[in-house]
Amino acid sequence: MAKGKKYNYNSFARYIRYFRDLLTKKEQHALEKEMMQDVFEEEAFEGMSSVSADELEEDVLELHKSINQKTGKKKNRIIPVLRYAAAVVLIFAVGSITILIKKSNEFKNQVKEETAMRDSSGGIPTPVSKTGDSAKVKTTRSILKEKQDVIVVQTRKEQEIVAPVSSELIAKSDLKEAEAPETTQVIPVEYDMIALKKQIETEQQIEVSALSYSEDTEQNNLTIRGQVISGSEDLPLPGVNVRIKGTTKGVVTDLDGNFSIEIPADQQSTLAFDFLGYKSEEIEISDNKNLTVNLTEDIIALEEVVVVGYGTMKKSDLTGAVATIESEDLESREEFAQIVVPKPADGMMNYKEYIKENIRYENIPEFDKAQVVKLEFEVTASGDITHIRAVKSAGTDFEQEAIRLLKDGPAWEPGTIDGTPSTQTVTLRIKFSPPE
Amino acid sequence: MDFFQKNRNTTKESDEELIRRYLATKDLELLGILYQRYIYLVYGVCLKYFKDREESKDAVMQIFEKLITEIEKHAVENFRPWLYVMTKHHCLRQLQKKTSASKKIKQFYDEKIMESTIELSPLDETPEKDMNKALAECIEKLKKEQKACIVLFYFKENCYREISLKLELPVNKVKSYIQNGKRNLKICLENKNG
What we know:
By secondary structure, chain A is of the alpha+beta class. Chain A has helices at residues 12-19, 25-35, 39-49, 53-71, 75-94, 104-120, 168-179, 193-219, 327-332, 348-358, 396-408, and strands spanning 97-101, 137-143, 151-153, 221-230, 241-244, 250-252, 258-264, 270-274, 281-284, 290-295, 305-308, 311-314, 339-340, 343-344, 371-379, 385-392, 412-413, 415-417, 420-422, 424-432. Chain A is rod-shaped, with a radius of gyration of 54 Å. Chain B has helices at residues 2-12, 15-25, 28-50, 53-73, 79-97, 101-112, 122-125, 133-141, 144-155, 160-167, 171-193. The chains are: A alpha+beta, B mainly alpha. At the A-B interface, helix 2, helix 3, helix 4, helix 5 and helix 7 of A face helix 1, helix 3, helix 4, helix 5 and helix 10 of B.
């Protein structure tokens, strides 16, 4: 087409012959190889393979007609152009067979025979190949199948014999035919309608079997049964997820750990077994239809578990901030708030000493047995002593004397909560011993 | 029989000459003749994508309509590949438009994308029988079926049907094994070179 560049594209005629299985193995291979070198042809081939050769031929013819109708300007032109296109396409399409016949006379008889045969429709055909010694005419013949009422016979003479049927149409087709490289010249092929039909039928069978194959792949399933047991205890595990890897198809084991799952028969499948607290297991299915699966226990690392407000999830699954508390921190946190109670500024021992030495016995009545007054009071954050009251009293005098001792006594240090001074209530027990 | 004369002239013309003449005369018939040279390929590609005969036939006619407008806009130098790209784009766009498009496109990509070979594989470029060492090694590495199909097709020159009989595989599987094998070989050879 483009100058200087040689294209070796396949023609539609060649494809039709290919799909009708009318090419030799070698020719088939050549077409396949060439087809794969051109994307356009490769994709088209794929599409064309999806319909039968008859359908393909019919459709392409129809399209030629439609385009001609669309583009033809004058009415008187449409019809011949259409006819021409149809003829060319069909001649190519049906495929050509070369036969050897003796003479042009015989050839004419041949046509009659053929027509008769076709009329009787179903009569067993006779092979039409005859070899003779006189001039051989190589005849390329195509039958217009579409309407079943036209037979176009083309003849190509080898040397000098004039073709019995001659028109420009045929000459034209013949010329085209000659361009096709794969026309067999040496091997005469016996040909008749029945044989052609058979060829078409076999082709259709091939297509059908190809089709049913693809259906098989969807429907032919293999049932796999088995039991899942715990590796450490040898007990059946119920509720284990059994899934075909790479799919969403899966089942769950029953109470006895048994399961049954259907897998596609034609492809290698892997079953995945998942159960919480156990290590996941994957098993490639070969031939064993009965499986025993051992799951081993898996201890989840505590550090990886994150406590969130609404449950637990894996750290890797969690979005948002994570505050980490190490397990050692948790152990040391027995007291949650560190509370320090108020105490006398120079210690409890010295305070007791102060009380002992500063009791004014003149303020209290005489006694011979030790008396105890228990005072409750608040030490404010600034160290002041307020809200003093007696919880236990040995009498008003003792009580007053105890309060006086507290108020006049050494200063108190305020208590703290987590280091911060705060007002706290203190109970102090003051013991009055009889003077020595 | 005037029309034969005309057609005979047009069949000798190259695609590009036809385009030039069409653009000069706007004679739609010329464009029709050009389109009909490849109409079966366009139809085949449509069949591949639509998987429906009627739909594909409609698409072939739509693509012709498109051709009428597009050919004016572009200076088409190489018609055949240009037509292929236009055809493919039309098909893909139609698929996208349809409501079930996503499904079909997905199906298409799942099934077919692996098979398309845009570039020539090393095997197509160098079909000679003495394969070099790297290629031989790469072929050895292929999966069993791919290897068998590649060897039979390229080195024993068997056709699909022969391979299909020998290996007891469906014809369409043979084709996809060859194509996937070719792709794997290409990757393998590229890795060796790079």
